[in-house]
Amino acid sequence: MKTVAFLLLFPFFPHLAVAQQAAPTQNPCEEKPISQRQMDDCAAFQYQEADAHLNKVYQKAVQYMTDDLARAQKQGDQKQIKYEETAIASLREGERTWISYRDIQCNAAAQQYEGGSMAPMIYSQCLTTLTEHRTADLKSIYEDGERKLD
Q1: 20 to 30 Å CA-CA from 80: which of 89, 91, 104, 137?
Q2: What tens digit of pLDDT does each residue of 29-68 get?
Q3: Which residues partner with 144 through β-bridges?
Q4: 3-class secondary structure per residue, the chain
Q5: CA distance 99 to 75
Q6: pLDDT tens digits, one per residue of 70-122
């Protein structure tokens, strides 16, 4: 009996799956925030956008450096290989260190509002600001001529 019911409902499953798919992420900043929760959501959304942009810029910088390393390896240029390996390792270490700094700094900023409804917004705004600055730093250091990171 269960099998018959399943087979009768089977043609409708694809429609159910489509209906249950998550809607595309909407920008909570598009509407004028009227509550603290909306302001928190907007600040979090802005951080997610800034973080995605930073990740794109960082990955492109690493890709350029990896391409340079591959070129040096192909040419057998040991001095350039060492240079590129060191540059890649330094960038990765710098990024890990920056993430620690970012987290400590933003926790300190939000701590001033601990227990208050503004704390999440302050934290997200701090993350956004520092992330945008980091993106600008990476671009100023690693963009070169035709090599654009955006």
Answers
A1: 137
A2: 887 768 999 999 999 999 999 999 999 999 999 999 999 9
A3: 147
A4: CHHHHHHHHHHHHHHHHHHHCCCCCCCCCCCCCCCHHHHHHHHHHHHHHHHHHHHHHHHHHHHHHHHHHHHHHHHCCHHHHHHHHHHHHHHHHHHHHHHHHHHHHHHHHHHCCCCCCCHHHHHHHHHHHHHHHHHHHHHHHHCECCECCC
A5: 35
A6: 999 999 999 999 999 999 999 999 999 999 999 999 999 999 999 999 999 99
Closest by Cα among 47, 53, 55, 58 to 127? 47
CATH number for 115: 1.20.1270.180
Total domains in the chain come to 1
Tell me whether residue 70 is in a domain: yes
Look at residue 4 and tell me if it is in a domain.
no
* End-to-end Cα spacing for the chain: 59
- Taking every pair of Cα atoms in the chain, the longest distance, rounded to a whole number of angstroms, is 74
Let me know if residue 75 belongs to a domain: yes
116, part of any domain: yes
